[in-house]
């Protein structure tokens, strides 16, 4: 079965109010193309989850497309902060639920295993848990029937959609991730997994290299081929992050006004991700950030001053 | 023999590195913790296993291109193994294999509890930062926690603006009573001294004072009455060899040790 579709077509079936698990990690394999397309199609009331927040969620929260966002912390690394999310927390303009990375990863793992909850010893005693305990559907304290000890039970998370960005997939949706695989549980927990990939490979390639498959096609609902889909973030071994573009975003997201102007110009003002990349980074920017394969990034490039 | 010149960040990194033992498993964040871990591995602890929460085990970069964070391949294009978040923070950390969780923080209180989330202004305003990431997990599930942070009155503080990560909770046995597992304690490496929670009290006390720092300076810069044992020793000065590794190999661009 051929699961390859246009990104805009896949996004068009996602209803307002949908629950979506997002897979990026700070500046690597972030779902920027997907988030921007959600915005272009004016989706709203989204319920988002990401173990580690990135620019994708910051864009969606800042643009008012989100009803509730659960995350385990996040930033733009040394470039800056997710200030649209941060402001929403302080001003309480959007419901933001803060976990630790592991607590949310365990909720995805419970969803992946199809079990109602997982006991853990993290988060106990923190102000994070104090807040989260207000919603008994997410977390509760409980006693282990085996050792009689107290644990935090985190409930399973199976969002309607999971969305990750990866290096490769075949048309059946066998997914190849190179580098660390922090988002396996996020991907597998969702009822429908959408993957944006840099490159489509043949099923024959997969059949001859099955050890490369990190997520088999049984999970995959749709595949969209979106070159540089994580831009301005990086995709390991394909392209580096664009430090100037991230620095620019880390500046504009500090106020709603400059953020709104950014979204208007670069997202609403472009038809697709290829146009977005060219507008943000200039024509040919991808040639300047293409990864050196022996390293996975642009060797020798100075990214911090 | 003349004493080599060094910066306070270099002293913090070297002092922390010396406390890491060969063969330990440690989870580290970016910045001075990572610098200290790489120094230990390059000197007395070649079998130190460094783990990044993103899913990297034993990063071993040869070229020192400074990276911006643990998701940056500059830190791990060369390493022993990749895994996932559950692989690192569940199957290694929660399983109980991590000897030291090594973190930075915005604030710390007298019981070694940490804030990496939110700072409140005097005018009632608030500013939210990164949040937990793996910090709360590392504090809850590592055998011991190391912290590197600047020694300021508004950072080493009586009462946190927000409790992100639990150290010794409210002291004595309260951490275990609350439902957390035991901790061997919290050690804090600042630019003035080394602090460590007492085994029984769970309260921070001064372990050593850095060369040239007086007790008055320490008290002036601490937000609570810190426990000062009798005869606090001076922190050992960094050796020329350690400084050379730091400057030439680990942080040649002086991103962190300046």
Low-confidence stretches of chain A: none
Which secondary-structure class do the elements of chain A indicate?
Answer: alpha/beta
User: What's the shape of chain A?
Assistant: globular
Biggest β-sheet of chain A: count, sense, barrel? 9 strands, mixed
Helix content of chain A: 25-40%
Strand content of chain A: 15-25%
Chains forming the largest contact: A-B, 65 and 59 residues
Low-confidence parts of chain B lasting 5 or more residues at pLDDT below 50? none
The biggest beta sheet of chain B is recorded as: 9 strands, mixed
Please state the CA-atom Rg of chain B, rounded to the nearest Å.
18 Å
Order of strands, main sheet of chain B, comes to 4-3-2-1-5-10-11-12-13
Q: Give the ordered list of helices and strands of chain B.
A: HEHEEEHEEEEEHEHEEEHH
Mean pLDDT of chain B: 94
- The CATH architecture classification of the domain at 8-104 and 134-146 and 166-210 and 228-250 in chain B is 3-Layer(aba) Sandwich
* CATH class designation of the largest domain in chain A: Alpha Beta
What is the CATH class of the domain at 8-104 and 134-146 and 166-210 and 228-250 in chain B? Alpha Beta
CATH-defined fold name of the domain at 8-104 and 134-146 and 166-210 and 228-250 in chain B: Glutaconate Coenzyme A-transferase
Summarize the topology.
The complex is a heterodimer of chains A (305) and B (258).
Chain A: H1 7-12, E1 19-22, H2 32-40, E2 46-50, H3 55-62, E3 66-71, H4 83-91, E4 95-98, H5 101-113, E5 117-120, H6 127-132, E6 139-143, E7 150-155, E8 161-169, E9 175-176, H7 184-189, E10 192-200, H8 203-208, E11 213-215, E12 220-225, H9 243-252, H10 256-268, H11 273-281, H12 285-288
Parallel strand pairs in A: 1-2, 1-8, 2-3, 3-4, 8-10, 10-12
Antiparallel strand pairs in A: 5-7, 6-7, 8-9, 9-11
Helix pairs in contact in A: 2-3, 3-4
Chain B: H1 8-19, E1 25-28, H2 32-42, E2 49-52, E3 56-57, E4 81-82, H3 85-94, E5 100-103, E6 107-108, E7 114-115, E8 118-120, E9 126-128, H4 135-141, E10 144-148, H5 174-178, E11 186-189, E12 193-197, E13 204-209, H6 215-220, H7 240-250
Parallel strand pairs in B: 1-2, 1-5, 5-10, 10-11
Antiparallel strand pairs in B: 2-3, 3-4, 6-7, 8-9, 11-12, 12-13
